Amino acid sequence: MLRFTTPILALMLASQVAFAQQETRPLRVVLDPGHGGHNTGAIGVAGIHEKHLTLTMAKQVAALLEDAADVEIILTRTDDTFLELTERTDFAHKVDADIFISLHCNASESPEPHGIETFFLGVKGSDPEADLLALRENENAVTPAPATADPLVAAIISDIRRNGTMAESSDLAAIVQQSLIKSIPEAVSRKVRQANFAVLRHSGIPAIVVEVGFLTHPKEGLLLANTDYQARITKALATAIKSFASLTADEREAD
Ligand SMILES: [Zn+2]
To answer: Which of 33, 118, 183, 200 could form a disulfide with 54 if both were Cys (CB 3.0 to 4.6 A apart)?
Structure first.
């Protein structure tokens, strides 16, 4: 009897899974290539501009997920255009995104720092280095990030804590960071940290900044200019987005 019922059960389960998938709408991801236009972002040892690299990688992630039924990627920019930081979050609101991922490369005055780190919003940075990075990435913000705790950001954070967005941002950051380090084990993990990034304020949805490496490091800066290395980064980002989509699929079930 078992020999007959098992395949039937398997078929029934398969059809239920297929049915459930149809009922779930895809995860809508706004992917934000940092900087653009006159705002070059960091300039690397290989002469590469952060704004070009973030756009190239964002387009690669979108291409990798083009056929994924459970993910929909929308870019904040698809060419070398300057966008205000508020325009990027406003765009995520406008298209009703589920999550927001801003893509960046790191830089330092010193040639020594290297590695990958992922951020979600914090009133103050996890450490003075995170504060400095947020200041640099906020350079075109309408309201620059203050060095000390900002009551406005504190209010935003207490609000997103209430609706659970903070925990989801932290989870998303962890998934992305893990996926990147798994794909590039030779890179140093600077871990998931918090900082006062202007682009993460007012998002209202899980939102992270990914810093995929230091353009100013003699070795990592050259690696970031390498297309094979870029492909490892973008594949890891695509994998992380797919993982987040399946982990949160039940939240997007149709009514
Ligand atoms: Zn940047």
So the answer is: 33
What are the pLDDT digits (tens) for 92-126? Answer: 999 999 999 999 999 999 999 999 999 999 878 88
CA of 144 to the centre of ligand 1 (A): 15
Integer CA distances (angstroms), 36 to 2, 85, 133, in order: 62, 11, 18
pLDDT score for 165: 87
Q: How distant, in Å, are the alpha carbons of 125, 142, 196 from that of 151? A: 14, 17, 12
Q: Compute the distance from residue 56 Cα to the ligand 1 centre, in Å.
A: 14
What is each CA distance from 153 to 13, 33, 164, 202, in whole angstroms? 47, 23, 16, 9
Q: Which residues surround ligand 1, an ion (CB under 5 A)?
A: 34, 41, 104, 137
User: For residue 161, what is the enclosing H or E element?
Assistant: helix 151-162
Query: 213 C-alpha vs ligand 1 centroid, how far in Å?
Result: 11
Q: Which pTM does this prediction carry?
A: 0.85
Q: Calculate how far, in angstroms, residue 106's C-alpha sits from the geometric centre of ligand 1.
A: 6
Please return the burial class of 216, using the count of CB atoms within 10 Å of its CB with bins 0-12, 13-18 and 19+. buried
Domains and CATH numbers, the chain: 25-252 (3.40.630.40)
Handedness of CA 211, 216, 217, 222 (dihedral sign): positive
